[in-house]
Amino acid sequence: MKLASFTLKGNKNPLYGVIRNGEVFVPGTDFISIHASLRDVIEANALEQLERSCNGTKAYSLNEVSLLPPVPNARRVICAGMNYQKVYPVDIDKPPEPENILLFSKLEGTLVGHADELEMPPGEAGLSYDYEGELVCIIGKGGRYISQQDALEHIAGFTIMNDGSVRDWQKQSIHAGKNFANSGSCGPWMVTRDDIPDVTEVRIETRLNGDNVQSASVREMLFPIEELICYISHTIDLKPGDMIATGSPDGSGGSLNPKRYLRDGDKLEIEITDIGTLKNRVCSQQFMGFEKQKMSV
């Protein structure tokens, strides 16, 4: 099942629904009165009820809506760093594999939805603006001290993220480099876990202006999904709707020689097997919102 959060053109009120055959079906008013957002549905363990509630209801073409990150009001977006063998994108070098899981977080306002514009940071910060394609787990059942054996049962579904990064600022602190406004993206939707029989078999492919720049299997992670969830749940009480970005493979712009950072007008596509393709264009601030062309789903 594919689930999306969205707004209608000309309306900022967020909605959500089930995607079927290129349309998004919204649940009935009684269901929405109980579950105001997709996060509320996940928290109530009501995904099956949502699917039933969308039978025979109002539907919108995907061309009529603006997709938001699947869980736009996620309490936390937790990211794993250096989770693939790669050239470290801040410096052209190959550091030793991390002995422990490396974590950072992304703040509210850093992620835009599918087909929305990525905001190129102004000034010198924009000179080292980079991309990172990643698989994201959306927590369905919260908990503390989750075992690796039980970890996958705590996942409601999966989506895609572009972990937008400003490398020169990342040298100052990871937090600074990872949290520029509207620098990353997430979507286009959430696919429930039952639709992906073996998540280790899916592949991440990132294309920049049509060039394939990242390509890897989830199986290549240094710390697998189960280990990430177990580790994170030992530090915090995971909540439904929390998002865990699982790391990006080799091939981001800072890892290339010569480096290839994002520039105004670039087209970025991140495709993950069984989920779809997250597409965004880079836009400098002075041009954001002008002559915006919706990218195809």
TrEMBL record:
One BP annotation, GO: small molecule metabolic process
InterPro entries per the UniProt record, alphabetical: FAH, Fumarylacetoacetase-like_C, Fumarylacetoacetase_C_sf
Coiled-coil ranges (or none): none
Pfam families referenced in this protein's UniProt entry, alphabetically: FAA_hydrolase (PF01557)
Domain Fumarylacetoacetase-like C-terminal: 77-282
Keyword Metal-binding tagged: yes
Keywords, sorted A to Z: Metal-binding
Gene3D superfamilies, A to Z: Fumarylacetoacetase-like, C-terminal domain
Keyword Metal-binding (UniProt): yes
Tree of life domain: Bacteria
Molecular function as annotated in GO: catalytic activity; metal ion binding
Similarity section: Belongs to the FAH family.
Name of protein: 2-keto-4-pentenoate hydratase/2-oxohepta-3-ene-1,7-dioic acid hydratase
